[in-house]
Amino acid sequence: MTSARSDAAVAVARQPHGWAAWSPPARAGAAILACIVALCVLSLPWTLARVEREGGAPVRRYEAGNLQMALLPPSWWATPAAAAGVIEQERATGNYIPSRVLGTDRLGRDLFARCLLGGAVSLLVGASAALIAVTVGTLYGALSGARGGRVDDALMRTVDVLYGLPSMLLVVLLAVAVDGVIERLGVRRAGALGQGIDLVVLLVAIGATSWLTIARVIRGQVLSLRAQPFMEACRALGIGPARQFFRHALPNVAGTVAVYAALAVPAAILAESFLSFLGIGVRDPMPSWGNLASEGLSEVNTVHSRWWLLLWPCLSIAATLLALNFLGDALRQAVDPAAAGRRRGS
């Protein structure tokens, strides 16, 4: 018996832990996500810096344009001879020259700077909306599971009704309604206040319609925990409901909340990109990956295919969503006892 126990202990000790226990796709996803986040966030001082333009006031780099250099391919791609002459002429006059690492758009703006800032905006909206959804869903589901009875029935029937409504339609209706209020208040769309209102409305709208699933999951977890001996001991000792949840129940559902949060971020980013693609979310001149893809789609045709305008935003969205889903799957396996048992058995 002692030998069997020691063998089992050795087998458990030999199991990889931490970073080594992650699958190769999860490691790749974490590395890709870290690179994207670092690149988009650390480049903010550069993308938001003001640049000088000939005959105009300084503007921020992401919205600074040079119409003489509009729709130019990336600098490492074949540049037409006429475009090369224009570049040399503009450089000689001292006018603003975009970096052209990823090419330029129709207004001669640097697509590299706009993709970096667009990534920061999309990640900010996605993370903030996911945080709202997780917070609201966790508190709502915990209240429903902890109270039980008629309160639980009423709260869950409300969730069922909201599930029957198309969430994307609710987001669109909310955004349109706020647009009408903004227009009546006379707020300039191009101003910083108007852009800030757009971002706040977008992340609140997405977060307010994404908490239903986590509410159901947390409700089920809390109902299961209520029957555990340690929760019965808490009630026997006279511990209040709030303390029971925050000190005893919440640590036991933290893994589930973390997994859902990791999977809610890509869903929120995709929703933001879709709305911005339709022209409802983030609007020009503020970039996001969604409205950059929308602008690039109109430039891809059989006559003149400016492929770089569509490729880079779509590639950024795809890489970020794939990395987040790999990371969420790794977290799910880490907190899933069945998955852990399968790994030990293999």
Please describe what this structure looks like.
This protein has 346 residues and is mainly alpha-helical. The chain has a domain at 124-345: MetI-like fold (Orthogonal Bundle). The protein is built from 14 helices and two strands; from the N terminus they run αααββααααααααααα. It has a two-stranded antiparallel ribbon. A hairpin with a 2-residue loop joins strand 1 and strand 2. Helix 2 crosses helix 13, helix 11 runs parallel beside helix 12 and helix 12 (289-297) runs antiparallel to helix 13. The longest helix has 37 residues, at 111-147.
What is the topology?
Elements: H1 2-14, H2 24-42, H3 44-47, E1 50-53, E2 56-60, H4 81-93, H5 111-147, H6 149-163, H7 167-185, H8 192-208, H9 212-226, H10 229-236, H11 241-277, H12 289-297, H13 308-335, H14 337-345
Helix pairs in contact: 2-5, 2-13, 5-6, 5-8, 5-9, 5-11, 7-8, 9-11, 10-11, 11-12, 11-13, 12-13
